[in-house]
Amino acid sequence: MIKAKSVSREFLPDEELVPSISTSSSDTPLEPLVLLDKDAPTAPITGITAGGVSFVVPETHDMVRTLFDPTLRKTVLDAAIVVALLSNFAIYYLLPPAYRISAFIAIYVFWRFGYNLGIGYLLYHQSRESRMVKWAQRWQLFARAAGPASSRTRVQRIMEQEFSAKGIASASYPIEFNTWLIYRKFVDLILMQDFTAYMCLVVACSALNPAVARIVELPVLTAIRWSLGMAFILFNLWVKLDAHRIIKDFAWYWGDFFFLQKADLVFDGVFDMVPHPMYSVGYIGYYGFALLTKSYTVLIVSLFAHCLQFAFLIGVENPHIEKIYGSDDSTGQGDQVLLEKLHLKPLIFGLRNFNWFRSSDILSVLVWASSLVVPFLLPRTATARYTVFGATLLVKLVQSVGLNVILHQQSTTKAWTKRFLKHDYTLYNAFENWTVLYNAISSLTYTALAAFSARELLFHDTSDSLVRSSNSWPLLRYILGAMMVALQLWTQYSIFEEIGYFGWFYGDFFLPKLSSISKSGIYRYLNNPERFFGISGVWGLALATYSPLVFLLACVWTINNVVLLNFVEQPHMIKLYGEQSVLLDGGLSRTIKNLIPDQLKTEGFSPSRRLSMNNVSSLTGKLLRDLRRSKFQDSTDQKHLISLSEKIMDLSCNHSVQGYKVDFAVDSINTKRYVLLGEPIRVKWTAPETHSTDDWIGLYKVVNTGFSRKATKISSKGHWIGVSQTSEYYVTGSELTTDASKTARRECVLQDNTTSGTVEFKGDLLVLEAGIYEVRYHLGNHHNVGYISCPFEIRVAAIDIPATVSAEFTAALQGLLELVAPATDYTEAFKGKNGKKLQQFTYLIGTSTGIEIGETVVLNAKTVTGLGKKLIEIKGVLDELSK
């Protein structure tokens, strides 16, 4: 399940100074970021230092206006930055074309390291120990000497000129703010140099380069490449502009490393679409330039820069956010609390929490290792190739079908949990065993896929030489494939970090509802991030290998993903948390919907089309509801079987030998066509005077006799009675072995006339299984049928399980025990672990109460009262899961 984030701001001295978080589009919890209200108030914004000092934040400008807007006064530092930027063009012009690419790669790498390592180093230590502020204090950068201006140091004069040019008196503001203003100049230099050097590299690698221009390309590919490239660049430009519109200069220059502002935080636009847009989609323009230039150099340099930017995010920004706004460790803490509460050992996740003393872990690792090694031990033949492919496909199909069926059955009937409760285990044992199974087989599918994909790359045969030629852009495929694999790994890591062990292992299916659903983390942006990004790596392998077999495996992965999300997971989550909570739009969906014109959103389709769609939706919903209601509810509600028996009644009754007939002396059978299990079944028969005294009547289940109407081809399993007490022999295979048994059976012949009589099935002659039955009159000492009765049902009386053990409940259980072992004590009934009686008793318990139990539960209960307590406990667990 998705857990809510906890936000704390211990950095601020007064709680009333904490910026409040609000949203213009959603009520969902949002992760803490330093964003300012897009509709900033006209009143001055108040800044707060770590020491609690408040001040009015003066107006500042972005780096482009600061450096190039002629209406703003420039300083010495501004001029130095502009000169440094112009030097890039001079270098480009002076260098020979053959050296430009190498030179600007080196220049760009230098400034990129200056960005991610240089700025990263300063911000890292500023966050931990306010190092830049301490440097400013030590060097007295903003101190005014008491004497004349000549007594001030050169650095102090430069600082004073910098502030006076901006119309700011440094003495009026705390040193944290002054330090931030000077630090901004350092950022302006590095970021502008970084961008300028990159653009010079792009121009040097562009199609104007003869080496690039010689690459032949189809016109349609050229159109696609330019369209995508320009779209990426324009989207990148919108991301930057929209981000600056929201966060303003304060967050753009990492202002919260120095002080905080009292303002409402608003999350919309690009910040509502993707996590960390400045570092994720904020670099998509790089790949647009790579497409325009057709240059692997630009692509690789862009990937290098993007990776460094993510390292900056992980190593610098995220730790600072956690420090200022509190870390979101609620998921991990929740997992730990649950583990302790459930008395479970840490669950294995991949290789995390691997335990050498847990046999299942060792076995899983051995299987994974085998799946990685064995494919490379096989010869490089077509047979070996298809063998490895078949094994990988089989593992995935077993995982897809098997786990999906388990989850579906667990959601609808709690089948997995019931199986463990049946054998006297707890629901926590059931969940723990599920996690082992899920982790083992899911990891095996990926190790098998990875091994087969690697084999396809390394051991591809010559038959694929056409598609593996240089025209298939192998380097580009490898790069894109690696990016897609990295995207899937990041997605799965983000999902796990948000939902924890119990969410990852579908704890909602197996454990009681522990908390309400909420949207945070990656789920704030995407409702189902695993729908696309969760399988991107599989398609990345298909792209990298360029193998039709890997492509087929990727299709199987995708189909399984669709089935799991739409037909297993989503229906269960809706049932558990409600449709509104589960289907709540993510940030990306909200942003796209906000772009739709209001008129189209309000009017939608035409009235006729909307009416037609509503009718179709209504009919579809009714059909689905009817299908759900048509399923069996429990063994005591079998009206569909009664209806079926009525349809075949004529077929049963019509088959008879002239003069023979059987009927029931029980009113409930003749009128309602059912009898409760354990009640005697009295049968009246009629036969010609010439009938044999060895005729007999048997009790059979309709589904077992099938369409054999003239002769019975199965045994009655002892459920038979001879019609005459003078019978000396019985049907072969049903011979009585003791005088006591013979006497008991003959006592069931209540009336014996020449042409009619009455027999009664009772005691051991009754069946202890619910279902549709019939009685058959057999001729002589044979299985030839003289008459078949109308079908009737044997039902088990339903027993309601109370909240506590009651006399009525205990009596009902005792009644079931009497059916299995009449006039016998509970302990004596199952003495020696009588298998037949145990099986019969557990069946009766499960059929009457709806709760299946195993023989172990019956034996451990010791008494009927103890069994009742166990049934109440199990029902409580299942009821909790169903809430």
UniProtKB/TrEMBL annotation:
The chain crosses the membrane at residues 75-95, 101-124, 195-212, 218-239, 362-379, 386-407, 436-454, 475-493, 538-559. Its main location: membrane. It catalyses: a 1,2-diacyl-sn-glycero-3-phosphoethanolamine + S-adenosyl-L-methionine = a 1,2-diacyl-sn-glycero-3-phospho-N-methylethanolamine + S-adenosyl-L-homocysteine + H(+). One of its GO terms (molecular function) is phosphatidylethanolamine N-methyltransferase activity. It is an enzyme of class 2 (transferase). It comes from the Eukaryota. Keywords: Endoplasmic reticulum, Lipid biosynthesis, Lipid metabolism, Membrane, Methyltransferase, Phospholipid biosynthesis, Phospholipid metabolism, S-adenosyl-L-methionine, Transferase, Transmembrane, Transmembrane helix. Pathway: Phospholipid metabolism; phosphatidylcholine biosynthesis. The keyword Methyltransferase applies. Belongs to the class VI-like SAM-binding methyltransferase superfamily. CHO2 family. HAMAP family: PEMT. This is Phosphatidylethanolamine N-methyltransferase. It comes from Babjeviella inositovora NRRL Y-12698.
